[in-house]
Amino acid sequence: MKFAIKRSNLKTIMMPLAMVFGAIFYPWMDYITFLSPYLIFIMLFITYCKLTPHDFKPGKFDLWLLGVQVILACIVYLSIFLWNRTLAEGVFICFFIPTATAAPVITSMLGGSISKVATFSLICNTFVAFVGPLILAAIGDHPEMTFASSFLLILKQVFPLILMPLALAMAMRKFTPSLHKKVVNMQQLSFYCWVISLFIVVGSCTSFAIRNWTPESTGTMVMLALGALAACLIQFKCGREIGGHFGDKVSGGQSLGQKNTVLAVWLALAYLNPLSSIAPAAYVAWQNIINSWQLMRHQSRINVLSSVSN
Fold it and tell me: Residue 76 contacts by C-beta under 8 Å, 6 or more apart in sequence?
């Protein structure tokens, strides 16, 4: 039992350590960033193995989250646009982008509903794929980007990472149930894959910010980073409030707060002022700090309960 407690304590410090070391070793991130989609694929595959086809049930939970996401994005853009267009674009994209593909994994670690987050992730990513090119073309700086090219690029960026691990998990459940059962029992592997992903993402975010820094842009970059922090806190809070009405604060918070920041950076660079991409890049750090804090609290509660029961 002492070993189990020590191991769980180690897990709580692995997340902040991954972020610190990612920031320290950022110059070498270009050599390992190619691993990120593979790690996400593995995490999602292991997590989706816990689901059945009947777990995907769209409902009012999804409509509320999607509606709040769009309304907040519009309010923020219209409120800031006349004062600072670059800031407005950067914060807007932090609200508008869809749920991260890895959100179901973190939700599972926090004890939330994987099926709710996975369902909303599919709905939200589909919505942004269809509506995003139209809205971004209207407010952006690159009208030469056509709807068709943008739509196909978003599909290429997002859907293989969502649908392929899901299809593989469902196929394994049907055709190789014994192997499927073994994968279901490998949920801890998702945590370690996420720690490695966190190391890579934070390092890439640090590298991105340093490469794009100029003395003239310092003030704007600071405002974009702070705007991303505000967007992150607001969305986690609103998501938890909505989730609370449906009996699952964790799923609501992760659905609305955890964002596909890789897609966000690409959309900002493709449509908006390139400097605005600093906001979603900073959002990477903020959302992972919040997720690390949540996971540390969750693990601490588990440790306390384990100690009491023994």
Answer: 88, 91, 92, 95, 231
User: Six-digit token pair at 165?
Assistant: 């691990």
Average pLDDT, stretch 260-282? Answer: 79
Q: Which of 185, 242, 187, 221 is nearest to 62 (CA)?
A: 242
Residue-wise pLDDT for 134-158, tens only, equals 777 777 665 555 666 666 766 676 6
Specify the DSSP class assigned to residue 50.
T
CB atoms within 10 A of CB 3: 7
Provide the token pair at 12. 């709580």
Half-sphere exposure of 140 (CA within 13 A, CB side): 24
What single DSSP character describes residue 112?
Answer: -
The Cα–Cα gap between 194 and 199 comes to: 9
CA pair distance 163, 161, nearest whole angstrom: 6
226, amino acid identity? L
pLDDT (tens digit per residue) in 188-212:
787 788 788 878 877 877 787 788 7
Residue 51 region by backbone torsions, left for phi larger than 0, else alpha for psi between -120 and 50, else beta: beta
Q: Are 51 and 40 in contact (CB under 8 A)?
A: no
Tokens 């390092």 map to which residue?
A: 203
Q: Is 202 within 8 Å of 284 (Cβ atoms)?
A: yes
Q: Tell me how far apart the alpha carbons of residues 81 and 13 are, in angstroms, rounded to a whole number.
A: 40
Q: In sequence order, what are the beta bridge partners of 259?
A: 99
pTM of the model: 0.77
Question: 257: Cβ–Cβ under 8 A, 6 or more apart, which residues?
Answer: 232, 235, 236, 239, 287, 290
Say if CB 270 and CB 144 are below 8 A apart: no
